[in-house]
Amino acid sequence: MAKRGMLIVLSGPSGVGKGTVRKALFDTGATDFSYSISMTTRQPREGEVNGVDYYFVSKEEFEENIRNGEMLEYAKYVDNYYGTPLKYVNETLDQGKDVFLEIEVNGAMQVRANCPDAVFVFLTPPDLMELKHRLIGRGTDAMDVINKRIKKAVGEIRMMRNYDYAVVNDEVSQAVARIQMIIRSERLRVTRVMPDYEQMIGDEN
Amino acid sequence: MAKRGMLIVLSGPSGVGKGTVRKALFDTGATDFSYSISMTTRQPREGEVNGVDYYFVSKEEFEENIRNGEMLEYAKYVDNYYGTPLKYVNETLDQGKDVFLEIEVNGAMQVRANCPDAVFVFLTPPDLMELKHRLIGRGTDAMDVINKRIKKAVGEIRMMRNYDYAVVNDEVSQAVARIQMIIRSERLRVTRVMPDYEQMIGDEN
Question: Which value does ipTM take for this structure?
């Protein structure tokens, strides 16, 4: 049996720039892993292509997929479903190829429950670490603005705890380079290369 | 309290080239971590400098260090002690700096027991993965040579299981690049960056 591929999950708080980073990552042309296209019930926007940007399906079709256990993860936002079909992910991993998902935090937690050996990367807003300096340094923000920002930061840091890596999205090209490094490094993990070695000595021992 | 540094342990089977890779790594000049110099009771060889290559001490001094719990790890080879003094490692980690050890497999397992959050890199001989191809491909080796090589490989693969990463020493410069990548990637681990974030929001929450 061939070694199974690795599942890589990029997620992060809403508005952090997950889609931009994912697009830049695949635009490098240096990716040796596959992008799993999401499925959605929302209408295609101008220029969006079915099977490239999303799989655009009807609400009935999406709900049938859910009922049949054919979604790796899914969520509903503003009356529309978004999710990852299980079939493509499984088939690609079975071929020994790595698969990359870019999904919302709720979806990422569903994947974590089903695929604990996936690699979970949390994209963080560049200002999360600078928050304190900024708030102390400026001293001009209204108290309710400060409190709101701190509350949001606490929520983001709590989310981060469920991930393996934290990548700051200070610059898209930097974030992309860090994600590529994490993927290459994860491929050298003993738990991931061990099946190959064990298979090699399996017949004799 | 400042974040503690990360302990990086490079080990591998005897003769794999750990010392050469470690030296090449530090020769790059691009290392932002400290090398922990080992202590030994063996005689300095021509050109070796005390405090650079090793700390050369007497057998009595080494054994006193052991008795006083001042060694992070140690072992005895051919009547000579080799080990890592705890003091330098702890002081450097406490300053928030990362520390690099290059030690024998027995020592690495002692470190694993004491510092489970260290990063353990296993350097593998380049022929370990090619073993089967070679043995099948050639068909010229005597049976006892084949069996001996397989037995050695099985032992090496068993050792590898106790490590986090496996780096093939096919080319020294390649092995160095992989180790640098692993260290940079490990610095992005949520478990390692989380203390900084928690400290930041600690006062407010």
Answer: 0.88
